[in-house]
Amino acid sequence: MAHAFNEFVHGLRYDDLPASVRDFARRWLLDLIGVAAGGVRTDLSHIIRNHAARQFGAGSGAARMLFDGRVVSAAGAALAGGMTIDALDGHDGHKLTKGHVGCGVFPALLALSQAENSTAGDDFLTALVIGYEIGTRAGIALHRTVPDYHTSGAWIAVACAALGARVLGLDAVRTREAIGIAEYHGPRSQMMRCIDAPTMVKDGSGWGAMTGVSAAYLAAAGFTGAPAVTVEAPEVADLWSDLGSNWRILEQYYKPFPVCRWAQPPLLATLGLRDAHGIASTDVDHIEITTFHHSLRLATRRPKTTEQAQYSTSFPTAVAMVRGHVGPDDIALHNLSDREVLRLSDSMVITESDDYNAAFPARRIAHATLVLKDGRRLTSPPTEATGDPENPVPMEQVRRKFRAYATPVLRAERIADIEAAIANLATGGLDALSTAVTGPIDEPANAPAPVRPEPGGAAHR
């Protein structure tokens, strides 16, 4: 492994980070915690946290699971936390990885920090940035070097192993072994299988976080596994040569809705027409969507689970047309049988565009046509999802989303404590944040969500 990579993992300090990078680290941290709070009520989260409590007993290093309170091993807490965040597909992502980094990096880093009593808040923020930088590059490298499309867990594993090496203070040799172990055992699972048949396996994020944490501890014990091809292969050297100068944490996109990013351009195009023309869903005969191929593959019309609802183009688009918003409660199990939503989802005509396919993955574009019952046709401009890095949303919108997702399960005082702990993390230490996000939720797990996030409006280009 190159000296520059090792120096970046172990030598980067908070003072080395540009102000914009520090700000985005706090932004994604707040957003991830909000999505975790929203995801904790899902069946997926309940099952995986109970599994971690039973199967990942704490040894000498222990950590508490996100919004649960039970103590497990660091690997178990990383697994449960990554899958709890991924249970609600509302977290940040990256266009070129076609996936996510933060949803696995944050819970793994928190678990490692608890297990190893690493409480410096400025170092936590620095390590979070390191995780984004390494995970994003590993994801791009994997797409470049293999023909299959793998889930995010594959590159999350590499990032989490690097963070484990940093927290554990591994030397250069054992850091290299940790990265190699994580790449080899990372879940190179078939992403499009979960698109075509959505289940709780989702994006492999928790499994990748668990693998990366385990890889670091294995390397510390003398286990070998180098080299990591996605880091050391000559054909990806350019991706690693700009560590510390090209900050890829700034390239992540923000999600205003808790559904697959590929469904969001059609959703926003429809929502834009609804709002601009004051159209009620009952005025609409059917909706026509023109989009890109991967969005077309999100084909579940009548979801029976929240996973199917999150990996659908037609269902959340229909929800947006009927209700004017799409939040966690709208894709929850008890909200999947609305007759008007199902009418529009069933009748939706979805086709793909060669031009939109050619633009993918750097751009995700769609347009919508509302075919009204009186015969009129209203067509949107080409629309991209809100929150792309080229046009980031204001931080206040991220805060509103956090509060909306957290309100059903956390007291107002605790929500305020989390926001304050993140704002003061560099000087105040990690303990306050750790305590606030690892205690059990404050409300019953089946409590209805009384607050909805603001959709953010349509972005037309």
Secondary structure layout plus pairing:
Elements: H1 3-11, H2 19-39, H3 43-55, E1 63-64, E2 71-72, H4 74-86, H5 102-115, H6 121-145, H7 153-168, H8 172-185, H9 191-196, H10 205-220, H11 229-232, H12 237-240, H13 264-277, E3 284-291, H14 293-296, H15 306-310, H16 314-323, H17 339-347, E4 349-352, H18 354-359, E5 365-372, E6 377-379, E7 383-384, H19 395-406, H20 412-423, H21 425-428, H22 431-438, E8 459-460
Helix pairs in contact: 2-4, 2-6, 2-19, 3-4, 4-5, 4-10, 5-6, 5-7, 5-10, 6-7, 7-8, 7-10, 8-10, 13-16, 16-17, 20-22
Features:
single chain; 461 residues; alpha+beta; 2-methylcitrate dehydratase PrpD; 60s Ribosomal Protein L30, Chain: A; 2 domains; 6-stranded mixed β-sheet; two-stranded antiparallel sheet; 22 helices; globular; disordered C terminus; MmgE/PrpD_sf; MmgE_PrpD_N; lyase activity
Short summary:
This protein has 461 residues and is an alpha+beta fold.
